[in-house]
Amino acid sequence: MKVNNWLNSIQSLLYPSGCLLCGAAGDYKLQFCPACYRSLPFNRHTCPICALPLPPSVSSDMPCGRCIKKQPPYTQSFAPLRYESPVSKLISGLKFNRRLYLVEPLARVLTDCMGETFIRPDLIIPVPLHPLRLQERGFNQSLELSRVVARHYRLPVNWQLCQRVRHTQAQSDLSEKARQKNLRSAFEVCGDIQSAHLVLFDDVITTGATVTELSKTLKRAGAKRVDVWAMARTPGY
């Protein structure tokens, strides 16, 4: 009996019962109650290339002006949520407060929204952290999220194929132009990706500087196609 009580206590800490936002009874897979799930800031009307939220008056069949002006090195992006409250609080809680119980429900929002209507890649590559940043944080949130998604779709994930070889200043502290400069030569491919269709997996796309630089690196190494999947997209960039 004591062992069962101890296990139940540990489980309640790792996997809180009820809705993550209001505490009400939630879906056992998504961990959101129906009302809170419907209220999430879904990113449904977007640029097909960079997943930027578009005004209702702009057709989502056409790329945004920014992507028309300069074609990104990746083919398309998918981010089911906008990086707004409460999504921003959930993702920040995962990254900076080690709330690893959020990995599963967040990743399940992505698979729930994406369904099965996509071109299956050969491999998922989580955006890498520099070893010093990884040591500081203790885990790579993009890797943990990508593992759940990869398991759902029965796709391979490889976190060692692309490495962050230069320790850079945190992107969140920089302007858009500084972010691009900050990431130059920051990544290195450590395996064979000739003619592969790859998916880069990140937690949040802000300016797109990280996935752009990574996509360039992968394309130079021989990747045939690079797509981007992320949990959320920041509006306004």
Structure summary, number of beta strands: 7
> What is the N-to-C order of secondary-structure elements (H for helix, E for strand)?
HHHEEHHEHHEHEEHE
Give the end-to-end Cα distance, rounded to a whole number of Å.
55 Å
Return the average pLDDT rounded to an integer: 87
Q: Low-confidence segments, ≥5 residues, pLDDT <50?
A: 1-13
Q: Give the overall shape, derived from the CA principal axes.
A: globular
Report the portion of residues in β strands. 5-15%
As for the number of domains, it is 2
Enter the CATH topology name of the largest domain: Rossmann fold
Taking Cα atoms only, what radius of gyration do you get, to the nearest Å? 18 Å
SSE arrangement:
Layout (H helix, E strand, L loop, with lengths): L1 H13 L19 H6 L25 H5 L7 E2 L2 E2 L4 H11 L5 H12 L8 E4 L4 H7 L3 H13 L8 E3 L11 H7 L4 E3 L7 E9 L3 H12 L4 E9 L4
Helix pairs in contact: 5-7
Provide a descriptive summary of the structure in words.
With 237 residues, the protein is α/β, with parallel strands linked by helices. The protein has 2 domains: 1-39, no CATH class; 41-233, Rossmann fold (3-Layer(aba) Sandwich), CATH 3.40.50. The chain contains 9 helices and 7 strands. The chain has helices spanning 2-14, 34-39, 65-69, 87-97, 103-114, 131-137, 141-153, 176-182, 209-220, and strands spanning 77-78, 81-82, 123-126, 162-164, 187-189, 197-205, 225-233. Strands 1, 2, 3, 6 and 7 form a 5-stranded parallel sheet that branches. The chain has a two-stranded antiparallel sheet with strand order 4-5. Strand 6, helix 9 (209-220) and strand 7 (225-233) form a beta-alpha-beta unit. Helix 5 packs across helix 7 (141-153). The longest helix has 13 residues, at 2-14. The chain is globular.
